[in-house]
Amino acid sequence: MRTLNVALGDRAYPIHIGPGLLTQPELLLPVLKTPRVIIVTNDRVGPLYLAKLRDTLEGAGVRVSAVELPDGEVHKDWMTLNCIFDALLEGRCERSTTLIALGGGVVGDMGGFAAATYQRGMPFVQVPTTLLAQVDSSVGGKTAINHPLGKNMIGAFYQPRLVLADTATLDTLPARELAAGVAEVIKYGLIRDSEFFVWLEANLERLMAREPEALADAIERSCRNKAEVVAADETEQGERALLNLGHTFGHAIETGMGYGEWLHGEAVAAGTMMAAELSCRLGWLGRADVERIAALFQRARLPVWGPELGVGRYLELMSHDKKVEAGRLRLVLLKSIGRAVMHADAPLADIEAVIAARCR
Fold it and tell me: What's the structural domain count of the chain?
């Protein structure tokens, strides 16, 4: 097992990474306020891992209840969130009950948002079961649901007490979702860790083949990068916004296509290529570097072209981005591989040209 720490003072918490962690109650018990938990999962992950986690906790004397949500990004909304609140209220859960989010990013985001708001805050634990959730969404305390006009527009910053990343759960992850997680892994190399990007170029096939050591190395390096950023800028006032490389374009793809049509990581990959192309047009990134980034995404079987939504539609959806400030669209761009910057002065004509050029 590998352990990292998210340094947030008295709200600091560990990230445990390794196989078989779902069967180790000694990792979970220290963060429980009382021996009572409610597990939030979905109807895809639940049949695979809910019984194992329940047995682990009940065997240690913890009272366990659970709620299974419908699977998919399309259900990341108020109606599904209310199913969690129904279960909390019907089960007479108290403020001291711990909510455990067992699943991918959708379950983690909704479970965390429910925990942040039920009785004005209850403790929660992230148990991510997808690569994307293990390297990104489970760490840092971002919780949210979607709105028809924009992704993740309604939510809260609310930190977990523990992140338990059992890498054995990745054995059942579909290949498409594994690739989507790799998109977020590549992101860390692009924004702040050029050595990691080089490592990914050398080890991508091992990662895609799910070699345990390669997976553990990539997850640990990704979580270390994110933990450092979150510790420095918890509520995204500065550096943390750089973690959104490709997300402004990517969220437009997800919203415009309809939630769930494109996986988040797929949209981020195509959006990152738009950001790289714009960085090249601004004279920061060389053409060879743009092609180098595209080659790595393609080796991961990720899209490097966005869908044809129309330039106007992209711009309309991007105008709802959380990084818009005083009406100005701020984009995360690349000065070089390993160095991202926030930029609010990209000419509109260049943004439009990039969208047109990178869509098929």
Answer: 2
